[in-house]
Write a structure and sequence with these properties.
The protein is mainly beta. It has five helices and 20 strands. Bound molecules: zinc ion.
Length: 270
């Protein structure tokens, strides 16, 4: 099932997207037993949003050997290397990644994104971990490479607003498509030029290990997202370009790139 979150003239909802581009609206959230409102929309008539608003995005660094090599910052980690992206970094499909003022070295990182389901995950074993998964989507762990180097830790480099595109939908039944999350092709192109290509079978720490490891540090809540790391081929993106991250069975996540406008909304004013 493809779970989408969308904005229609009637407001924001979750829905199930079928193969004919029709969305069946869901009552409330998509976890557990789904109930439908009976209202249907054509995908063309609504705007798809990030398929989930996670309480946190937990990311894994240096989780593909060829990416570890291209970064040239030491060996692969002995244990999963965790960092967080703030929920405010999340961006929907079709929305613009905003390059911070003065920045010239913002990179794309196409990644398989794991979405945690209704039961969450706390202190789960690798054997229990997949039962905590709601589904999978595509993530782009957008990174300011110069700040990543100069800061020594990655909160700023990876935490800017718009630095976490997610979508376009959450696939809840990869086996039903004859696919396995542990072996999916991951690619990224910029303006049609191939940049990244890898397979999730190359993950140094696989999905059950990652979920178990993270769940022993912090409780994963329903809707939380785990970004599993990026294959080699990362590179710069500039205003005016278009980034397409694609994963087998999950469609493609397209975002334009623009300069940040710097408009202040201090105090929450418009
Ligand atoms: Zn990454």
């Amino acid at each position: 099932m493809r779970i989408v979150r969308f904005a229609s003239p009637q407001g924001m909802s979750f829905g199930v997207l079928d193969g004919d581009g029709q969305i069946a609206q869901i009552e409330g959230h998509p976890f557990g037993q789904i109930s439908f409102t009976g209202t249907r929309y054509a995908q063309a008539d609504v705007r798809l949003l990030s398929p989930i608003l996670p309480s946190k995005v937990v990311c894994v660094g240096k989780n593909y050997a060829d990416h570890v090599k291209e970064m040239n910052t030491g060996d692969a980690p002995k244990e999963p290397l965790l960092f967080l992206k703030p929920s405010t970094a999340v961006l929907g499909p079709g929305d613009a990644i905003r390059i911070p003022a003065g920045s010239t070295n913002v990179h794309h990182e196409a990644e398989l994104a794991v979405v945690i389901g209704a039961r969450g995950a706390r202190n789960v074993s690798p054997e229990q971990a997949l039962a905590s998964v709601f589904g999978y989507t595509i993530g782009n762990d957008v990174t300011e490479r110069d700040m990543q180097k100069s800061d020594g830790q990655w909160t700023r480099a990876k935490g800017f607003d718009s630095f976490c595109p997610l979508g376009p939908w959450i696939e809840t039944d990869l086996p039903g498509l004859g696919l396995d999350a542990a072996d999916l092709e991951v690619t990224c192109t910029v303006d049609g030029e191939p940049r990244q290509q890898g397979r999730t079978s190359q993950l140094l720490f696989g999905i059950p290990t990652l979920i178990s490891y993270i769940s022993r540090v912090m409780t994963l809540l329903p809707g939380d997202v785990v970004l599993t790391g990026t294959p080699s081929g990362v590179g710069p993106i500039r205003p005016g370009q278009q980034v397409v991250c694609a994963i087998q069975g999950l469609g493609s996540l397209t975002n334009s790139v623009t300069a940040a406008d710097g408009v202040s909304t201090a105090g929450g004013g418009a």
